[in-house]
Amino acid sequence: MKSVTIGKNQAGQRLDKFLHKYLPFAGNGFLYKMLRRKNITLNGKRAEGKEILALNDEVRFFFSDETFAKFSGLPAAGSQRNQGTIAAPALHIQEYTNACRSLGGISVLYEDEDCLIVNKPAGLLTQKASPADISLNEWLVGYLLRQNQISEEELGFFRPSVCNRLDRNTSGIVLCGKSLAGLQYLSKCVREHSVRKFYRTICVGALREPVTVSGYLVKDRDRNQVTVSGESQAGASREQGSLIHTACLPISVTPAFTLLEVELITGKSHQIRAHLASMGHPLIGDYKYGIASVNHDLKKRFGLEHHLLHACRITFPEGTSGAGKPLSGRSICAPCPGAFQILEEALFPSAPV
Fold first, then answer.
1. What angle separates helix 136-146 from helix 90-102, to the nearest 10 degrees?
2. Best label site of 17, 50, 99, 261, fewest CB within 10 Å?
3. d(CA 108, CA 119)
4. CA dihedral over 274, 278, 284, 286, signed as positive or negative
């Protein structure tokens, strides 16, 4: 018999989800059969699998060592699982350690027991696009390991993760769940659009008045590109695409450029870039949706090689409890990167709205 006591990063999830993490090579049929036969019990009683685990619950496994080894993927004798724990593979641990050591320019804006908010530099992936990539996700786990805020054993049950995604060349605020409770809270905020997300960017042309625009966004997955049509032109777009809302507030304006603060009311891939381009005001440096001649000139003058978009501020809803309580009603700000500030000063030396 083997026993596992549920910790804070296992509590709050369904028993069957926990079992899949603990025995990754076991199928649904096997796990539910073991539950029915009481070969797997919860607090000494028969369980169905849909129970929500609580802190200090006890899950017991009445398996032979050979069966345990088969479905855990670890040796039967002398493995850490025999003492009721499971370690993350050493190869992954090295990957996390290397990411924390090698990735620079990431600054911590806010941290508590459950949540971490960082300022991501442009050029860094939020999550892997291919197995060989190193992303902010790996940095996060490496950071928590280095700070002794999570152990290798805990990583076998729970993996801290980023909760919102930014394009590789978009800089700024990324939300990270350190604990299961933090991950659930932040993911819910993003999913339900209960946080307000603001961006800074520079677009082509003069946009002199605040405007909130809506349209339908359709993604071409083969080209990794989206198109936007207005509500009045919806037609097929309404059937195929997602309704998006983007609010634009001009900060400084010249005849050639506008410094904007943009609120992402909905959150879709490439939304700001494609929506502004559809309005005739593409982002500077945007080689996918922008104006080639403008981009070429700015690259020659300032070395700008990618779109200029920065997630500068996020505001959390009030009245939250649990893992979200320390963030209730708070706004977190991320300063614009140096390259952004240089362009802002050059293009808007003294240009009021």
1. 100
2. 50
3. 6
4. positive
- Statement: the pTM of the whole predicted model exceeds 0.70: yes
- Contact between 118 and 175 under an 8 Å Cβ cutoff? The reply is no
Q: Name the amino acid, one letter, at 309.
A: L
Q: Where are the alpha helices (DSSP H) in the chain?
A: 15-22, 28-36, 65-72, 90-102, 136-146, 180-191, 236-240, 271-278, 292-302, 338-347
Residue type, 260: L
pLDDT along the chain (353 residues), means of 10: 87 91 90 95 96 94 88 59 49 88 95 97 94 94 95 84 95 96 94 95 96 85 76 48 89 96 89 92 95 96 95 96 95 96 93 54
What local confidence, expressed as pLDDT, does residue 318 receive? 95
Q: Quick one: pLDDT at residue 84? A: 45
Q: Which two tokens stand for residue 67?
A: 């069966």
Q: Which two tokens stand for residue 9?
A: 């990063």
Beta bridge partners of 201: 260, 309
Work out the number of other CB atoms within 10 angstroms of the CB of residue 69.
18
Chain length of the chain: 353
Report whether 209 contacts 175 (CB < 8 A).
no
How many other C-beta atoms lie within 10 A of the C-beta of residue 85?
A: 16
Q: Are 308 and 295 in contact, with CB atoms under 8 Å apart?
A: no
Give yes or no for a contact between 157 and 11, defined as CB atoms under 8 angstroms apart: no
Cβ neighbour number for residue 161 with a 10 Å cutoff = 18
Phi then psi for residue 222, to 5 deg, are -65, -35
